[in-house]
Amino acid sequence: MTSHLPARSGSSEARAVSLGQRTAGVLMPRLVAYVVDLFIVGLISLIVAMSVSFLGLITFGIGWMLFPIVGICTAMAYAAITIGGAAQATIGMRVSGIRVERGDGGPPDGITAAAHCLLFYVATFTVGLFLLTVTIGLLRRDGRMGHDLLTGLVLVRN
């Protein structure tokens, strides 16, 4: 039997309405945030790559085996530190006015933020998965993409 009483502020119905209002229009800011963060991660990766080059010299080439993972490890560390931190947002997200929350409204931890980043880049560099995750984001009212759903995270406007 369904109650006709108004939803209490702590109820899941009120939370869904509130979440829907906070997630409206986040897809375009996500694109801007991605471009800004890609530039920042690229600069940090360049610094890390120079360090790996030096490491390779002093280890007679063994350190150079780290080159294939420099980019993704840098991106995951960047996400874990920024999204998993107090601001709950990367620098690009802060510029765009969005931040990341868990599905229940709490702050994400660094491990979840790093996993979210890894899934995003796997989807980004796989055309079929990228089209699927963007389609999911376009079809959902809350704008959550595939990697958001898999990690239980949601991007909201500040």
Describe the structure.
The chain is mainly alpha-helical. It has one domain. Helix content is 61%, strand content 6%. It has seven helices and two strands. It has helices at 12-23, 27-58, 70-82, 91-96, 110-124, 127-139, 146-151, and strands spanning 98-102, 153-157. α2 (27-58) packs across α3. The longest helix has 32 residues, at 27-58. The radius of gyration is 19 Å and the shape is elongated. Residues 1-9 have low confidence and may be disordered.
Helix-strand blueprint:
Layout: H1 12-23, H2 27-58, H3 70-82, H4 91-96, E1 98-102, H5 110-124, H6 127-139, H7 146-151, E2 153-157
Antiparallel strand pairs: 1-2
Helix pairs in contact: 2-3, 3-5, 5-6
Instruction: Give the percentage of residues in beta strands.
Output: 5-15%
Whole-number mean pLDDT: 89
What is Rg? 19 Å
Structural class: mainly alpha
Shape designation: elongated
| Spatial sequence of strands, sheet with the most strands | 1-2
Write the element-wise H/E pattern from the N-terminal end onward.
HHHHEHHHE
Describe the sheet with the most strands: 2 strands, antiparallel
Count every helix, treating DSSP H or I runs of 4 or more residues as helices.
7
Short key terms for the protein model shown above:
158 residues, mainly alpha, two-stranded antiparallel ribbon, 7 helices, 2 strands, 61% helix, 6% strand, disordered N terminus
